[in-house]
Amino acid sequence: MSRTVRIALLVAALVAVGASVVVWRSRAKPEGAATLQTVPVKRTDILATIGATGTVEPEEVVDVGAQVAGQINRFGVDVEGRTIDYGSAVEVGTVLAEIDDSLYAADVEASKAQLAQARAGIVSATANLAQMKAKLSQARRDWERAQKLGPSEALAPTAYDQYMASYEVAQANVAFAEAAIEQAKASVLQAQAALDRAQRNLGYCTITSPVKGVIIDRRVNIGQTVVSSLNAPSLFLIAKDLRRIQIWVSVNEADIGKIAPGQTVTFTVDAFPNQTFRGQVGKIRLNATMTQNVVTYTVEVTTDNSDGKLLPYLTANARFEVGQRQHVLAVPNAALHWWPKPEQVPVQYRDLTAPPREGAHATGTVWVEQDHALRPIVVITGLTDGTLTEVEGGDLAEDMRVVVGDEAPSRRAAGATGGDASPFAPQPLRGR
């Protein structure tokens, strides 16, 4: 190739590059000029929810305690023959633990001895009553003979008085002996009650399960001494049925009016982030709590746990479904909050002000870009899911483009580097 040809090709290349730069600069807007971001109006389904956090709790929990004091000697075995521990399945009456019963066994033996002594007291009192009745019979006959003789030379007055007194004393002794029998019977009842109490305390040394369920907490070890006072010490925590689980959700007072029993709830837990669980509102507890001047209510959400995935005390992120609309016009929430700058508003709309928006069925304004000009449309807002809002009214129609914000083209072209982008520089890949 000759030198003249190479020079001609170089000149042609420089001319082409210069022309490209001129074309690019002629198309670019001045630095700082704003480009409106628009999105089309679409028909979609809107699901309004209230978000809150809660804790997974067993539906019914039984706290098993000890009614006597003593040292833990051993644990029982569960339905599978293993020593009672966390996660053990138990039936009604399953032995959970045994407390040292030596002192209580001694109390039982002492109470049995007292009961035998009281019963012997009845026998003794009965024999004494028979003796007193025999003496009364003898005193009655002596008194009857004395009455026939009367005070005379044959019977001295002192002897007469003595027979009368002996008869009255014998009557009193019989009454006393009868009372002694009743007292002995009462002593038997008292001794029997003491024996029953001692036997009951001895029985309390064996801790058994009152329900069928799963042990979710074991709070004692072998050799540990439990002390029973005004409050029974807690030894085991048993969940009756882990196939039914509750979510205790704390709901702000501003949202509690939108929640009612039977309402559908969806929730996720961090242990299974890709799975969504469903439940229903069971009840709203009335004992509200206040933390830093924020009042919250606890809402019980019931759900099925037949597969056993949900474990007690997991943190749940719940969403209460408060409303649902299908196939309605919807715009991004940003479109309802965007308002053009004064220089962007056409002359005929410059006296227009943004109407206030408060809750559903309020009035709002969206701006549509039509024929390279802005035009406001007043709409009535409905349900919102936090991202999209249901709208209706005016001449808003599907596929109209509503403005959601401004974007500077220089910043968009500059990308992450921040400077002016050259049309010949390699551009990063952008996803749709």
Word description of this protein:
The chain is of the alpha+beta class and 432 residues long. It is 31% helix and 35% strand. It folds into 4 domains: 28-46 and 327-414, conserved putative lor/sdh protein from methanococcus maripaludis s2 fold, CATH 2.40.420.20; 50-57 and 244-324, Elongation Factor Tu (Ef-tu), domain 3; 60-100 and 217-239, Beta Barrel (OB fold (Dihydrolipoamide Acetyltransferase, E2P)), CATH 2.40.50; 103-204, Helix Hairpins, CATH 1.10.287. The chain contains 5 helices and 20 strands. It has a 6-stranded antiparallel beta barrel. The chain has a 4-stranded antiparallel sheet with strand order 3-10-8-5, with no helix packed on it. Helix 2 packs antiparallel against helix 3.
Low-pLDDT residue spans = 21-33, 410-432
How many helices? The count is 5
DSSP strand (E) fraction?
25-35%
State the name of the first-level CATH class of the largest domain. Answer: Mainly Beta
On the 0 to 100 scale, the average pLDDT is: 83
Question: In what order do the strands lie side by side in the largest sheet?
Answer: 2-11-15-13-12-16
Radius of gyration: 48 Å
Major sheet description = 6 strands, antiparallel, barrel
Looking at the overall shape, the CATH architecture of the largest domain is Beta Barrel
CATH fold assignment of the largest domain: conserved putative lor/sdh protein from methanococcus maripaludis s2 fold
Form type:
elongated
What is the helix/strand order? HEEEEEEHHEEEEEEEEEEHEEEEH
How many separate domains make up the residues? 4
- Helix content percent band: 25-40%
Secondary-structure class: alpha+beta
N- to C-terminal distance:
47 Å
Number of strands: 20
